[in-house]
Amino acid sequence: MIVEKDLIKTVIYASKKAGEILLKHFGRSLEVEGKGLRDIVTNADIESEDFLKDFLFREFPEIGFYGEEKGGNLEGLIWMVDPLDGTKNFFRGLDVFAVSIALLDGKKPIFGVIHIPTKNLTVWGAEGMGSYANDRKLELDEGDGLENSFLATGFPHGNPELVDPYIETLREILKRAMGVRRMGSAAYDLAMVAYGLFDGFWEFGLKPWDTAAGAIIVKEAGAVLSDIYGGEWDIFSQTILVAKRKLHAEMVEIFRSIS
Predict the structure, then answer these.
(1) DSSP assignment, residue 68?
(2) Which pLDDT does position 36 carry in this prediction?
(3) Each residue of 110-141: pLDDT tens digit?
(4) Which of 30, 76, 139, 237 has its Cβ near the most Cβ atoms within 10 Å?
(5) Sequence-distant contacts of 232-235: CB under 8 A, at least 24 apart
(6) From CA 209, how far away is CA 186, in angstroms rounded?
(7) Going by DSSP bridges, is the β-strand pair 179-182/136-138 parallel, antiparallel, or unpaired?
(8) How far is CA 213 from the centre of its chain?
(9) How confident is the prediction for the chain on average, in pLDDT?
(10) What's the pTM?
């Protein structure tokens, strides 16, 4: 499928309207329920997802839908949506969270939008079209070595079996990197790699809705996308690594050495 400009404009608009829903709830009393191991869902997540599902079905009835909170169809051409990535941050009043919308064709991301409401920033990318932050084209350079690199990561808090292997990677990167930050939203982290704030990002145990939009955005911005060992990545991969080219090669070498 060729991603057309009208579709891009419409989905960016939808991401911003979903962001407005989140801001309406942010800092206010929320209805919260447990969801899986040490995970939560709020009424803001649900309202955002319901809006996006209704809006996208109305505008693009031929495209299926899969949302983090209520599921859906995974076959063919679909929207993969995380209506609020960074729910725990949101619940606690930490202003790092995002709306993530990806278009998948045969489970492959071909277009993605990440809207960060508290920054009024929308980062998007489409296959063969490049990536943009609002109207600015994003083009990453080759990067530098670890000692001059500023990285993002995430903890596999919902996957206890992944904690030990993850800590091994973190230990080796902390010895070498200029800085490492844990923001609490993979969509935010991926958008910020494309934006140029972070030079790279890695994490274990993410879900397809966490990474689908960000993957195509960072790839189109010029970052290298793989699993942490340099292998091919897809939306079901257990690990993800995105980084500027020179940094990516160095990180892969380190991760392979400790596997």
Answers:
(1) T
(2) 64
(3) 999 999 999 999 999 999 999 999 989 999 99
(4) 237
(5) 234/107, 234/108, 235/80, 235/104, 235/107, 235/108, 235/109, 235/208, 235/211
(6) 10
(7) unpaired
(8) 6
(9) 96
(10) 0.96
